[in-house]
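Comment on both lines for my students:
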Amino acid sequence: MSLWFPLMKDREEMIHDPHNQTFDWIFRDPAETGKPWDDIGKFLQTASSGTYWISGKAGSGKSTLMKYISNNATTRRLLLRWAGQNELVMVSFYFYHGGSELQKSEVGVLRSLLYQILATRPGLIQLAFPERFRALCIAGGQRETFEPSPTELRRAFNAVVQKCSDVNFFLAVDGLDEYNGADADMSLLVSMVRDLTQHSKVKGLLSSRPWAVFQQSFAGCPQLRLHDFTRPDIARFVSAKVGQHSRVQTMTAKDSQGVDNLMTEIVDASCGVFLWVYLVVLSVLEGLTNYDMVEEIRYPSTTLHKRQDFSCSWKRAPSRTSG
């Protein structure tokens, strides 16, 4: 039996770490920042189970934030308060529509999460796959090759979380909108994950675009609309990349207002979409290196926004109503 598959961690490894200080605000009390999102720190450490949903436009940085939260020491510290005397097992999966079938399917996410859990706690293998385990014992330990079905995987997952009383599980699943299925299948996938997180020893952190199918499924869950809150992070990124270019000081001395306007226009036009900003900043830096004037640099960046040429950089265009 093998749950592992090639490229299982490929998508996660493709995600860049956030720019310095980006997303530092995520663990702060929303009341102190004046930003209306549900307190994720409170969600992670309180006794209740359930789901936290992060939504955002394509390119707004959801995957980067999910990786930041999943790998952050603060997350583990808060979850340990929730787990109490129990062992804490943290697992993650990043859907990838541009990848293999297992990187964008229900079977893939279940195999990956189960593999991570059972690799941490090998003693749970017998609990997860009792029939396979007995067959292996009867066969004298000879390995059996098989492809587990979705039903068998769901049954195994439920057995682990329901019968393992000394472990608390944290599931981080990114990019639900990149699941390769119709709306009905996607609703079933979300229902399956939400059912798992209803168990008292399971918490789930999920992310997706703000499509109607997810808005309906996660209504009433604590959540955060990422594209509404990324402006300060985007402004810092633009300032660090553009403002510190060797030519900017010289240009500022001649046309400080023009340089300020350029950076402000980039931030304003971004609508919270980090990927768009990244592409525009690359264009601006190229212009600075080529000794273009401010107006020459401004033209392609503003044209890119108006024509929305950046949409071609996403391999999958939205196909569902945003709601």
